[in-house]
């Protein structure tokens, strides 16, 4: 039996359990969009293709499945590229589908040409995806889709891209079905015994957790390993959600948004640094000095690319599926949970942080106020900017896996879309987007998407009238800043109201708590504008800028 290419694709989406597809319409992908309605799959109309790509990624993250984002040919496709890059950094299986006016007419002048004769989307997507291809004949759909799915799901997951011309979508081909390849066995390391030996020999180790620890859902294995060997835990900005911040072994963050306890311990003579899921980028190691260099590194990663490149100490890599290899480490070593006590100095410092009086609202107080009224299962997405580093430093993680932030690709406004897609995937959990006024002016119009589709995300927006991270970093390092302060700042609450969202403007702790409590009861998107001190110094100044 033969079916149209567009019908076969949508049938696959339905069989994969996809309830929502994200994108912006255009002629070259219109057959797909019309067919979605026939299969009762909701099409989420974005306000910008990048926003739609972020939403598909948030959906994939929260639902633990593949996300689908579609854009038309030409600029519709190029607008999706940033979202693909962010999905790759988050290791998310997202299928990006773009159009092409016609395969048969390729080589002639075409409006919004996406072939090798125009803006070649296949080549443009290659650096930010695991697979990018153009399906030039309908009978190639089976193999190309199979390749794309296997790349998206094998080892370290990630986004893939298929460019499908309009006339190819309209072709009839033999029916087939490809299940999602989640049956693929995890990549197992043969070197677990070496890891056990290193842990047994270590006198002063540290667990250094990155975003990969979060994305691999390795929360329970990490807790067992930390408690069994009594290893203090430090997180990178992206690893913030991997470990409960109240746990006795947690020292805080390192890098931007880091803590004094973590910094002091890193200087105390580490003999084994156990890195889990971190590329050890400049944001993660900001402030790292020669006296922090460990004697040895034990690193759990999917990929060898950056292991042993930044820290020069001898490195033992445990390659493969992070969660599985950590679990095998526990099984083979017989590790088990143990109780530990919170150091008195940390408990006293935490109490002091909550009792400070302020004349102008600080970001730290804003996040402590947010935490005070949010349920522990609430999921936060941190956007690109100093607001997220304030959250890294001040927001308490009660339940691991409830804070997502990227410190490598860092697309401004991405968290706005991620939170929308995630809320669709988990409607029964509160979802909060932590963002700033600068990010709002990048992709804040996606709030309209949330309003129009009845998606009650809470947007927690710190407003200080500037691109704070850039302005403060530039001023600190060079004595001046250029082009980072808005002459006419955005009125976030009015902007939100213009799109139909419920909006609050907060200037103190009581305002914040009242607004969040109202937002938790709302059936529509809520924007909470928090007016914070524009002169407050964010925890990012270890990242130096040199003009020499």
From TrEMBL:
Residues 4-113 form the Thiamine pyrophosphate enzyme N-terminal TPP-binding domain. Residues 383-530 form the Thiamine pyrophosphate enzyme TPP-binding domain. Keywords: Thiamine pyrophosphate. Its cofactor is thiamine diphosphate. CDD domains: TPP_enzymes, TPP_PYR_POX_like. Residues 192-329 form the Thiamine pyrophosphate enzyme central domain. Pfam families: TPP_enzyme_C, TPP_enzyme_M, TPP_enzyme_N. Belongs to the TPP enzyme family. This is Thiamine pyrophosphate-binding protein.
């Amino acid at each position: 039996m033969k079916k149209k290419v567009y019908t076969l694709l949508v049938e696959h989406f339905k069989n994969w359990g996809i309830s929502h597809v994200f994108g912006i319409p255009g002629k070259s992908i219109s057959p797909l969009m019309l067919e979605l309605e026939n299969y009762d799959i909701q099409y989420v109309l974005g306000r910008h293709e990048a926003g739609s790509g972020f939403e598909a990624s948030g959906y994939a993250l929260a639902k633990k499945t593949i996300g689908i984002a579609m854009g038309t040919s030409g600029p519709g496709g190029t607008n999706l590229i940033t979202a693909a890059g962010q999905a790759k950094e988050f290791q998310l299986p997202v299928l990006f589908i773009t159009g092409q006016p016609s395969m048969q007419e390729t080589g002639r002048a075409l409006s919004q040409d996406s072939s090798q004769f125009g803006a070649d989307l296949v080549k443009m997507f290659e650096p930010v995806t695991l697979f990018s291809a153009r399906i030039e004949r309908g009978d190639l759909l089976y193999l190309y889709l199979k390749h794309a799915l296997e790349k998206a799901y094998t080892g370290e997951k990630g986004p893939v891209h298929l460019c499908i011309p309009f006339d190819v979508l309209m072709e009839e081909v033999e029916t087939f079905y490809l299940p999602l390849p989640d049956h693929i066995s995890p990549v197992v390391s043969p070197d677990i015994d070496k890891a056990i030996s290193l842990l047994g020999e270590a006198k002063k180790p540290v667990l250094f957790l990155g975003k990969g620890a979060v994305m691999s859902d390795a929360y329970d294995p990490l807790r067992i390993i930390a408690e069994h060997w009594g290893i203090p835990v430090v997180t990178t900005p992206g690893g913030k959600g991997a470990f409960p911040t109240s746990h006795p072994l947690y020292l805080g963050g390192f890098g931007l948004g880091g803590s004094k306890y973590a910094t002091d311990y890193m200087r105390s003579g580490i003999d084994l640094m156990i890195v889990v899921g971190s590329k050890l980028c400049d944001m993660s190691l900001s402030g790292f000095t020669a006296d922090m260099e460990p004697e040895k590194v034990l690193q759990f990663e999917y990929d060898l690319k950056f292991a042993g490149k930044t820290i020069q100490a001898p490195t033992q890599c445990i390659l493969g599926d992070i969660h599985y290899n950590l679990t095998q480490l526990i099984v083979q070593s017989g590790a088990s949970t143990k109780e530990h006590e919170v150091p008195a100095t940390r408990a006293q410092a935490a109490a002091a942080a909550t009792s400070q009086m302020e004349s102008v609202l600080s970001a730290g107080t804003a996040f402590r106020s947010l935490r005070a009224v949010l349920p522990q299962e609430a999921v936060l997405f941190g956007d690109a900017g100093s607001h997220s580093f304030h959250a890294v430093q001040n927001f308490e993680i009660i339940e691991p896996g409830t804070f997502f932030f990227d410190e490598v690709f860092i697309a401004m406004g991405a968290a706005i879309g991620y939170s929308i897609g995630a809320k669709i995937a988990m409607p029964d959990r509160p979802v909060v987007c932590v963002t700033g006024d600068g990010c709002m002016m990048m992709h804040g119009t996606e709030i309209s998407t949330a309003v129009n589709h009845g998606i009650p995300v809470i947007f927690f927006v710190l407003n200080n009238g500037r691109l704070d991270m850039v302005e403060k970093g530039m001023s600190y390092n060079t004595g001046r800043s250029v082009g980072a302060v808005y002459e006419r700042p955005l009125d976030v609450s009015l902007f939100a109201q213009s799109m139909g969202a419920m909006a609050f403007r907060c200037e103190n702790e009581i305002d914040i708590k009242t607004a969040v409590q109202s937002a938790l009861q709302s059936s529509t998107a809520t924007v909470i504008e928090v007016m914070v001190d524009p002169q407050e110094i964010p925890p990012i100044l270890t990242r130096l800028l040199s003009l020499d």
